[in-house]
Amino acid sequence: MIQNNSSDNNNQPLAKRLGNEGRINELADLKDQVAARDAELIRIKRERDFEIQELNEIKAQLEDAKNVLEVRVSAKTKELRDLTGNLEKEIEARTRELQEKVKESEQSRVALMNMLEDMEDLRRRAEEEKEKTLAIITNFADGLLFFDSNDDLALANPQIETCFAVSKEDILSVIGKKISELEKVAGFKPLVELVAGSLKKISRKELFLSEKLVLEVSSLEVSSRHGKIGTLVTIHDITREKTVERMKTEFVSIAAHQLRTPISAIKWTLRMILDGDLGPINEEQRDFLDKTYKSNERMINLINDLLNVTRIEEGRHLYNLILVNLEDIVSALVGTYSELFKQKRLTLEFEKPKKALPQVKIDVEKMRLVVSNLIENAIKYTPAGGKISVSVGGDDANIKISVRDTGMGILKDQEPRIFTKYFRGSNAIRMETEGTGLGLFIAKNIVETHGGKIDFVSREGEGTIFTFLVPVAKN
Ligand code: ADP
Fold first, then answer.
1. What pLDDT band is residue 14 in, cutting at 50, 70 and 90?
2. Looking at the domain assignment, is residue 131 inside a domain?
3. Rounded distance, CA 443 to CA 376, Å?
4. Considering only CA atoms, which of 244, 369, 394 is closest in space to residue 313?
5. Of ligand 1's atoms, which has the minimum distance to the CA of residue 441?
6. What are phi and psi of 397, to 5 degrees?
7. Which range of residues forms the domain containing residue 147?
8. Do residues 306 and 328 both lie within one domain?
9. Cα separation of 313 and 207, whole Å?
10. pTM strictly above 0.85
């Protein structure tokens, strides 16, 4: 309160106040107080100034810091802007890339769909083909057995049931089995025996089940571009063919037998006339009768050939098997042709074995037929001046007989047919009109029924060698 008053009084002139001592002291105190106050104010002011200076410094510092910060902020902003720019570009590129990829995958999807459609189409077609093949197999007239690449039975058509008198269940029980296991079903036993339990190539093997059922079995490997798929066994019913063949054979056999008696009678009658038993004949008559006799002889040969063929076909042409020395038989036989050799102006050579040969067990008559067929062919197909060599040799296992000639030879392309029934070479027909084409068929059958083999080597215009082997008899 005092201070407030004094402050009011300070503005009054100093002389007015000096009149009063107390007032002077008071004033002095006041003055001191004012001085102290001033000093205080000065100190405060100094402090303030100092603070202001300090604040200014801080402000300057802050100003600096602000500037630095601004620079930094602007740098960062720029950096951020750059980054944003790059990022945007990258996002754009990525987006484009993704769009490309989406497009590509869309294209792939479409392509895949197309492929799926194509595959579906192919699958449908394959299915149709399979159905068609199955329908063909099912309705095929022959019995069919299909073994897969592992030789396991994969398929059998319904005709198999009739062929082997087996039931559907029987067939189902052997599906997936090897051929050797098929014999578990009794009806299949003859088939398994015929193929000897293996699926190797079989060509037209006959399976005689009864008078009323004869089957022909063939097997064939089925392959594709990728290799073997399996083996197809076909079973063809040949009962009718066999019956007709048998009837034909029977007819030929009966006809030949029936013809043999009158033809033999003619032969002996002619012989008697020619020998003058019935009185003298003149030269012209002899000439005619001689020709008739020779024609009759050919007819007898033909009938004998036919009878031999029918016997072969009936499987009954080996009768009397006896132990003999084949060399003796051949040697005697060659001798009977010496006259014919002379007539045809051919040289004959007989080559005997170097050492004694073991005996063979043969039907002598039939074996003679083989040797004479070969010698007669050599004579027929070798022009005058040629040479024929017959040789007998062999070892402990086989006796080997060869007939070699220097004749017309066999045409290369006709070689595979030489042993077939009724076959005659075109060059042979030109050279020798007479002939039945049965001689070699008969010879081959006889040799093979004896367990032997017959073959030939020939060169057209140079000659032929026929060779056959007969196995030595085992004790
Ligand atoms: P054919 O002699 O009656 O014609 P084959 O069965 O004996 O009948 O002989 C069949 C065929 O083999 C003959 O027609 C002939 O073409 C040929 N052939 C057989 N032997 C000889 C041979 N030595 N030289 C040439 N060809 C032969």
1. low
2. no
3. 12
4. 244
5. 6
6. -95, -40
7. 140-237
8. no
9. 15
10. no
Number of Cβ atoms within 10 Å of the Cβ of 194 = 15
326 in the same domain as 310? no
Residues at CB less than 6 angstroms from ligand 1? 373, 377-378, 381, 405, 407-410, 418, 423-425, 428, 435-441, 464
String of DSSP letters for 222-271: EEETTEEEEEEEEEEE-HHHHHHHHHHHHHHHHHHHHHHHHHHHHHHHHH
pLDDT digits (tens, 9 = 90+) for 446-473: 999 999 999 999 999 999 999 999 999 8
Strands (E), 325-452: 347-351, 360-363, 387-394, 398-405
**Which of 125, 154, 187 is a domain's end point?**
125
Cα angle 243, 246, 248; round to 5: 110
Among 188, 189, 201, 196, which Cα is nearest to 233's?
A: 201
For residues 224 and 412, give the distance between their C-alpha atoms in angstroms, rounded to a whole number: 33
pLDDT tens figures, 287-341: 999 999 999 998 998 898 888 888 888 776 666 889 999 999 999 999 999 999 9
**Residues counted in the chain:** 475
Nearest Cα residue to atom 17 of ligand 1: 425
